[in-house]
Amino acid sequence: MPEPLISARGVTRRFGDFTAVDDVSLEVAPGEIVGLLGANGAGKTTLIRMILGLLIPTEGDLSLFGEAPSRETRARLGYVSQGLGLWDDLTVTENLAFVDGAFGSAATPVPDSLRDAGDSLVVGIGLGGQRQLAFAAALGHKPELLVLDEPTSGVDPLARARLWDTVRDQADAGVGALVTTHYMQEAERCDRLMLMSRGVAVAQGTVADIVGDTTATEVRTPHWQQAFTALNDANILVALAGTHVRAVDATEDEVRAALIEAGVTADLVPMQATLDEAMVARERATV
Amino acid sequence: MSAWGARELTVTYGDTVALSSVSVDVREGEVLAVVGGDGAGKTTLLRALAGAVPASAGAVDAPSLSSIGFMPTAAGVWRDLSVDQNIDFVASAQGVTGATLAERREQLLADTGLEGATKRLAGQLSGGMRQKLAFALAMIHRPPMLILDEPSTGVDPVSRVDLWRMISQAAVDGAAIIMATTYLDEAERASRVLVLDGGEVLLAGTPADVMANVPGHVADAVGTPDRARSWRRGSQFKTWSPDEPTDGAARADDLEDAVIAATLAKETSNA
Hints:
The complex is a heterodimer. By secondary structure, chain A is α/β, with parallel strands linked by helices. Chain A folds into 2 domains: 6-210, P-loop containing nucleotide triphosphate hydrolases (Rossmann fold, 3-Layer(aba) Sandwich); 212-286, Alpha-Beta Plaits (2-Layer Sandwich), CATH 3.30.70.790. Helices cover 33% and strands 28% of the residues of chain A. Chain A has 10 helices and 13 strands. Chain A has helices at residues 44-51, 71-74, 92-103, 126-139, 157-172, 184-187, 207-211, 224-233, 252-261, 275-286, and strands at 6-15, 18-28, 33-38, 59-64, 77-80, 145-149, 176-180, 192-197, 200-205, 215-220, 237-241, 244-248, 267-272. In chain A, the strands form 3 sheets. In chain A, strands 5-6-7-3-8-9 form a 6-stranded mixed beta sheet, with helices on both faces. In chain A, strands 11-12-10-13 form a 4-stranded antiparallel beta sheet. In chain A, helix 3 (92-103) packs parallel to helix 4. The two termini of chain A are 39 Å apart. In chain B, helix 4 runs parallel beside helix 5. The radius of gyration of chain B is 20 Å and the shape is globular. In chain B, 47% of the residues are buried. The chains are: A alpha/beta, B alpha/beta.
């Protein structure tokens, strides 16, 4: 078992009376892609800021590459922030030169997709190009660990797939990655997931582990409008999929009772809950 | 049945073609998802339907502005006003008053979970809460058509499920809804999908139609994949081929594979 790149044990961070991260333990090993999921305010960003060395844990042990986070450990990781961290008023080439200067890295090559845009200002290359550039800038100094905060927001599916190919190629070469995302299909591309809610790590493991025994029932009826309204009125978590109605985290009896109450006849088909449905069910259970 | 939508709509800004001959129907009781990356033309299409951008060619059919609810990207609330003041302001602009306003205010606060936060400034709400409020404000006059520009972008999955429930309810109640999204799992739950790329229609139809109409097919890669036509799902490579699938095999397993395949097919034919 190689030494973990990130090792967090019982890490807590408080701001005054507010506990942003509460007793969280997490490991990321070389070659592994770990997804960090949770609602806004769940504590993901605070955890990442501690890993980057920008915040000190109030309690618990956090080590990177076997030592406390510092400027030295920062130089061994590559970080793509939500805001991308590029300089809009500099050109593509100038941005990479700046990063090379900061990290002492050799001339980081301009990504192939931006070959003809080296002299363009970053503000003019579009969001897809900016994301490619932010990845190149984060990889230039050959980091051992990648920290990616919503790395593909807003790009088209092919561009997103290409960015993920880059992450997976890095993992194949032994780099570890910690990725936050709001895209469920991205979450499914991770080797392992950690779900946070209100500062607490409420679930860890594969997609199947996190979905657990959350149930979903598909309600099939020509009267889908009435079925939707009846279930919603009965305070059952409900979603529309085309003209099918999905009732989440409710027993078949509860669903049937709500439909009978409203005089709607329907076929009920048990289905596996999706990852986002399971996340909502867990969130509702902790309120 | 009303026939709102765009007919061979082309929109140009100077020399830039933002939309090229796009046709789409927006039907009552349905959610139409418009999918595409940055610069695909999603916002231009929505703005053209709302009458905010003139057609260079083709036509737009939409109800009058007072019958449209419009929710712009990452906006639609006044951050320096409280939740209550936002409701008062939008209701008065839309001519919603008296008992109707009281009833809709109650409904809005229950739907968004903002009952206890009516004095909070909208700017202090979480991103998910703010988007739910913006959606509820866009439909406070119960317009027959709702135009939503990326209502869920950047919203966490938990709030997104809630927002989707509210959008679903509006469709169930009869509204014609067109919404832009970058989340394909969300688009997969819409009644119909329009996939835009570089201002052109890449794919259109029900999610099932879109998957069935992909040019060629997507399969698990065998051997060393051709990286130009391959991408990873997890650690497994998928490969797009322009050839027809073998009898009975699906062309794509989900909307994500379908959109990637269609984008690759377009790149290949342009190359």
